[in-house]
Amino acid sequence: MSAVEEKLAELGLTLPEVVPPLAAYQPAVQSGLYVHTSGQLPMVDGKLPMSGKVGGEVTPEEAKDLARTCALNALAAVKSVAGDLDRVARVVKVTGFVASAPDFTGQPAVLNGASELLGAVLGDKGVHARSAVGVAVLPLDAPVEVEIQVELTQA
Fold first, then answer.
1. Spatial separation of the C-alpha atoms in residues 14 and 9, rounded to whole Å
2. Torsion angle, alpha carbons of 126, 39, 84, 47, to 10
3. Surface-to-core class of residue 55, CB atoms within 10 Å of its CB (0-12 exposed, 13-18 middle, 19+ buried)
4. Residue 35's Cα: distance from chain center in Å?
5. Secondary element (H or E) of residue 2
6. What is the pLDDT of residue 146?
7. Contacts of 142 (CB under 8 A, 6+ apart)
């Protein structure tokens, strides 16, 4: 077990299986020393635990937990191409999309779920740049979607 996966275990978490693509794309691709994930929905065992708009059917607190799940799914996607999460030199960028009710403006707080997870698991390597974007709708009516870009160490 990698040191990153041991840290996940200390936090009471396990790395999930890679979420299969919903369309014609790969969950993650590597280019040089960088891995770019596709947008990861908060799928758990092949299903969305919740759907709807944040600030409507989904509370900001629930959405923050879902963003955390998205980040776990993103780490699984990174591992699928990097082979070992201990190769992560740093998380470079996190982009999060929040399906928002018309008057909801708390997207950054929702995306803290992903950012805080990456920091807890990767320490200083998890510190990253980030964008938090409110959108009208996401695939499958998911409340949140997260993609990450990471830099790897040499193999």
1. 6
2. 110
3. buried
4. 13
5. none
6. 98
7. 41, 42, 48, 51, 66, 99
Residue 113 near residue 66 (C-beta atoms within 8 A): yes
The residue written with tokens 């993650």 in the block is 28
So what's the pLDDT on residue 155?
A: 75
Give the position of tokens 């980040």.
71
Average pLDDT over residues 90-97: 98
Q: What percent of the chain has pLDDT over 90?
A: 97
* Residue range 65-87: mean pLDDT, rounded: 97
| pLDDT value for 10 | 96
Which residues fall within 8 angstroms of residue 87, CB to CB, at 6 or more apart?
Answer: 152, 153, 155
